Amino acid sequence: LPEHWRVVILAVNPQTQFDTNAVLDLQAALKTLRSQGRRLILCGLTQAQMRSLEAQGVARMMDVSNLCPDLEFAVARGLAIVQEMKSEARRKGTRVVTEQVDQALTEGGA
Fold it and tell me: Would the pTM count as exceeding 0.70?
């Protein structure tokens, strides 16, 4: 992923089954993204998928606000996260991160 992409949105198909391997992959992705200062948003989850993720511990690894009912909400949440990152970077005086976030917002690749 390009360095300036701070938020990744994963739209889940209603037919997707979260078996053990899928959950392990999702947990690994969450850890990797978090270590890079990025965030993952899942959208389009059915109630059954949500229960499965909760039962397997994935939901506890994520901010509940990053579990969105549809893509429109996920994009809005992603933009909010990018703005939060930008504000935090300004408070800390982290110019490079602020420039990357600005670039992501102008390119629409948050």
Answer: yes
